[in-house]
Specification:
Layout lengths: L10 E3 L2 E4 L3 E2 L6 E5 L8 E6 L2 E6 L6 E4 L26 E3 L10 E8 L2 H10 L9 H35 L4 E3 L2 E3 L23 H22 L7 H20 L8 E7 L6 E8 L6 E2 L10 E3 L3 E6 L6 H4 L8 H11 L6 E8 L9 E3 L1 E6 L2 E6 L7 E8 L35 E8 L4 E7 L11 E5 L14 E6 L9 H7 L9 H10 L4 E6 L4 E7 L4 E10 L10 E9 L6 E7 L7 E6 L28 H12 L2 H12 L4
Parallel strand pairs: 13-18
Antiparallel strand pairs: 1-2, 2-3, 4-5, 5-6, 6-7, 8-9, 9-12, 10-11, 12-13, 13-14, 15-16, 16-17, 17-19, 20-21, 21-22, 22-23, 24-25, 25-26, 26-27, 28-29, 29-30, 30-31
Length: 661
Amino acid sequence: MDPQWSEYGYRNTGLARLSFRLGFRNEINTAVIPMRFNDREGNRLLLTWDAGRPFEIDPVDLEIATAVGFDKEWKEQIALPMPFGIVTTPAHPAFDSSSGPDQQGPRLFTLNYGKSIGTSLHPIKEGYVDAPFKSDKELIQSVKRLMTITQVVVTGLLKAIIVLRKIESILPRRITLRGKKITRIPLLPISRIFALPPDSPQELTLSSFISRLAVLLDRSLEQEISAQGEGEQPLLDSSLEELDRLIKVLSRLIKAPGEMDDFVDLISWDGENSLHKWKVLVKDETTQTLVSPRIMHSMHQLGVTQDYVVLMDTVFKLGAEQLLTSPAPDFPVLERMIRRLIDFRQSDNTVLYLIKRSDLNASATEVVAKQIVIPRGTAHFLLDYTNPNNQITLHCVHNTGWDAAEWVRPFDQFEDTAFPGIVGMATGGTDVNLLARYVIDAEQGAVVENKFADDPQKDLTWMLALNAVCQPDGVTPPDRIKNIFWNGWGSHGDLLPEYIQKLNHPAKHRNLPVDEAVKVATLGLPGTLLRLDTDTMTIGDHYVFPPGRFGNSVQFIPRKGAQAGGDDGYLMCIVNGSDDPSTSEFWLFDAQNLMAGPVCCLGHESVKVGMTIHSTWVPEISNRSAAYKVPVEQDYNEKLDRIDRKDELTPLFKQYVYPNF
């Protein structure tokens, strides 16, 4: 790295990579979305993730082709004086290859949304999403008081420790504590002063915060006592100093609530022109006024049918704890405490927003959505394209007791398995998942039918993460989905730390109690492939991966002449194995006979694939020929002008950014 720019470097902070001078990296690492606006251009490919605008790549050489939309066409979650901000979008936008009711031709539909400071603080303050909502002003004031009082406590303790250290230097003495000889004056366990809560997430009150702080100090002191024989520096002082720094950073953010607001913009793009936006509004039942929806988790996905656009507040959390989850990597006890303070339990419900496509007039700037609440949370869903009698058919998996936005941390603790936790992997489920189908009267905004698939042995539907359906041309959604192929990750004790068990213990609508789920995870269940018959809502076929094999990123590959939404074709999975983790294989299954196992396993010593997520398939590819392109230099020169740091950053961009992109 050029020493001139050493302070501009990036570091891992959980899901995010952050530079305190440049901002957040757009990782576009979640999904690959095929688009076909016309036959002349052929298939185009989009890369997406939840915290950045999407980018197009060339389908052949996979090089970045262009951003979708200029930076100024997107609104950031919070306006920061840095060139790379956070733009929250769906990782799963929806492409409609037909002209739609407006007869405007094929379109990509996506979203740009954000949260107010009140919406962001509510689940952190209460400990779970579904708690009664307090006013934004009350939430901000209560958190400010909490930060102020905590900073006073931490500052006071730091001063007291400085005095104690000075006394030690003047009057050193050797004592024995817990069988260890030390030369420190031991502090009394601070937690004895307070009534300690269970070691799990709960409502963030002043007493619970201070109690958890007391636990932190006790554990830091214990580590310090244990480390003194090895000549290490005191951990208590360092932990307090780091906590003091983090509180000051949080306090500065809390003081700028006006820079964040609740908004949801529905975006339509024709692949050629500027983005078209509609501000989404819903009726507030209390005030009977139109307001922006409060998005409590994330809008990880949206869906499009012939007549409607369906938005979902998916139970896939996206907040401070996910993006900035490693603020103090040298202090595991402190990081464990921070997670408990700012993390929260996901909702027990799914919130849908239905928008009539006929209301999406090119001259309009706003659109009103109907809001529907369905019991049980959902992260991924599918839709039948047709809407007979104005009815929407929605297919989904309810992931009760499983939070796909959590993952195993280095400081996690395990008591139910002899194996170490797999750091970085998504945490396991505390309940079996539930396959569901809903029929929704879109005009009335009500569910008129629901049906669930049964897993009699409760051994096939754990961690159902990814799905695949038959799309013969790769882009056209099926009028009616008859078969859905789901990829399950199984149940594993080394993915279920104590924290996750306690976090999801209160989840409603359970199929199994947490204790039973933990027993299943301790014994272990392998991953699965399932074929769901959506007519009968039964698991018509399935495959169980052998022990030591992890199959992921399921993708449907149709046979010639296959019917959309059917089962005539193959399934491809990327498979990794614990016996040789340095290599990966591609397993091919007959979609009409999963139980027979793979018909082909492709591998080579040079194929080494890490953890993958979503994949895609198209019948043919060619080099990108579309004319649409956002000029990088023009795009970011305009951004640098807006943040008033052009003189500082222009040399960096001219030397390292513009020549390479």
